[in-house]
Amino acid sequence: MTTKMLSLYSTTMTEKMPSLYLSTINPHFSIISWKKKSFPVTGSRNLFTTTVHASRSKVDHQISRSQGHEEDSLLLMRSVLGSMERVYLKRNPTAKAILDLVKSVDDADHICYDHLAFRTFGVKGHGIESMASFFLDYGYKQQEELRFPAKKLKALWFSPPSGLPHEDAATGSGVNGPLPRIFISELLVDQLSPQAQEIIEKYIETSGSGYKHATLASALGSLTWKKPFFSDFQQLAKESEYAAWTLVNGYALNHVTISTHRLKTHLTNIRALNQFLQENGFKLNSEGGALKVSPDGLLLQSSTVADSISFKFSDGFTESVPCSYIEFAERLVLPQYKNLRKEEVKEFHRRDGFEVGNADKIFESTSKEQLTRRTG
């Protein structure tokens, strides 16, 4: 996509962008800026509209820095992911502190993400497809489905587009490095109690067609529905902590995952990384043990406990709510490639995909039990 095309895209977005309700969780972002305008009150709705402008200088910088390294069509996607990442790091100081710490002892220019994860409500178009459509448009491929009956969840993961230097040749760190997998889960709302369903659908109604702009909401750190009442948040939390989290965080990045086997120092071993983080005072999710291991022993994962953020509810209460966390994943070499020399091993030689048992425990990173657990 050329500079001229990006400028035209920005103009089109500005002219056609529908209304979004902007939460006060994080009104600051770099790639995209907004300003409030008046909106007519219809029934019980009282929403803000959003005028969105792409920063020309930021886009030009991305283009000049990335020319010759990747297809032009991916520049905008990386800019959007970069905006999501900035919102995530601003709201979650633990994640930023850990990234800075790892960079201080490893290769600061090549900290790669294994995957990015999002949560959604599986009702009236607001589920997995609302976030997935953006990535599918850029060549991501849908992979297998995972089910979590006890949590009333399902998830899909998406692999990066093929034929691009996303696995081993790409350089850069974070969202500017090798393209990450995408993991999107959704709450099976129709399996909840009538009371919980009523609460969720009440807010979904205020969103209107906001699900069509889930990616934009994530990049802005905004909710697409009306800011909730504290009483509704409390009621949902009693039945589904996942539901309560999604109500106040919306489409925000739930977590990013450092690919430990891509690190250059001894921290490439996830056990060594876990010990290093704990020695530096970081609290890891202890559900099922700090290290989560797949049955085949080839996928090893761990995560921190989520940060909390002060949230002002629409009924005037200001309370601390769970925000996001950071995860770590080590993918071991598949048995059929075990005789390869270390320098010959590529990403496709390693264990791919996800594991229900691991993911089920990782979900607990935002649970009240983990947030209130004492360190150690």
Automatic annotation (TrEMBL):
It comes from the Eukaryota. It is an enzyme of class 1 (oxidoreductase). Its EC number is 1.13.11.93. Belongs to the 2-oxoadipate dioxygenase/decarboxylase family. The keyword Iron applies. Keywords: Dioxygenase, Iron, Oxidoreductase. The keyword Zinc-finger does not apply. GO terms for molecular function: dioxygenase activity. This is 2-oxoadipate dioxygenase/decarboxylase. Its cofactor is Fe(2+).
